[in-house]
Amino acid sequence: MRWRQRRFFVRYHRVVARQVAHLRRRHGVPAIISVHSFTPRLADAARPWNVAVLWDTDWRLAAPVLADLRRDPALCVGDNEPYSGRFPIGYSIPFHAARSRLPHVTFELRQDLIASRETAQAWAATLAAALRPPLSDRKLYVLNRS
């Protein structure tokens, strides 16, 4: 277990921390975007969401992205479901973004909707389009005050 922790977990988070530090030195406050996937079913329960937007106290990216995604009536968009972004959950966002007060958001995509290269690319384009307006706003790139 310790071998796996050192080999993967620690190495991964060191690389992320170095990249965040590099971005801060070079460009100021970066925004952190995390993308995960979830199963279409958990136990016997179907999970209808196509995509979920997870957030805790910093809504600067989550709110506009939720609003944008929800404009599409074909999408079932979860606001902190099927998972919650409320602390304590996960490691990357709390450790690399929230504790440093950087703007951030986490996406969860249903696995069956990203099973092929084409569908994964389509979802990447959808998320990029939803992120483009808030990421283009220079007022985003300050430390969160809450």
Protein architecture, described:
By secondary structure, the chain is of the alpha/beta class. The protein has two domains: 1-28; 31-140, 3-Layer(aba) Sandwich (Aminopeptidase). 42% of the residues lie in helices and 17% in strands. It has four helices and six strands. The chain has helices at residues 2-27, 62-70, 92-98, 117-136, and strands at residues 32-38, 41-42, 45-46, 51-54, 77-79, 104-110. The strands form two sheets. The chain has a four-stranded mixed sheet with strand order 1-6-4-5, sandwiched between helices. A two-stranded antiparallel ribbon has the order 2-3. Helix 2 (62-70) crosses helix 4. The termini are far apart.
Give a summary of the structure in a few sentences.
The chain is α/β, with parallel strands linked by helices and 146 residues long. It has helices at residues 2-27, 62-70, 92-98, 117-136; strands at residues 32-38, 41-42, 45-46, 51-54, 77-79, 104-110. The strands form two sheets. It has a four-stranded mixed β-sheet with strand order 1-6-4-5, sandwiched between helices.
Spatial order of the strands forming the largest sheet: 1-6-4-5
Strand content: 15-25%
**C-alpha Rg, in Å?**
16 Å
Give the number of DSSP strands. 6
Provide the succession of SSEs.
HEEEEHEHEH
Shape designation = globular
Mean pLDDT score? 94
Structural topology:
Elements: H1 2-27, E1 32-38, E2 41-42, E3 45-46, E4 51-54, H2 62-70, E5 77-79, H3 92-98, E6 104-110, H4 117-136
Parallel strand pairs: 1-6, 4-5
Antiparallel strand pairs: 2-3, 4-6
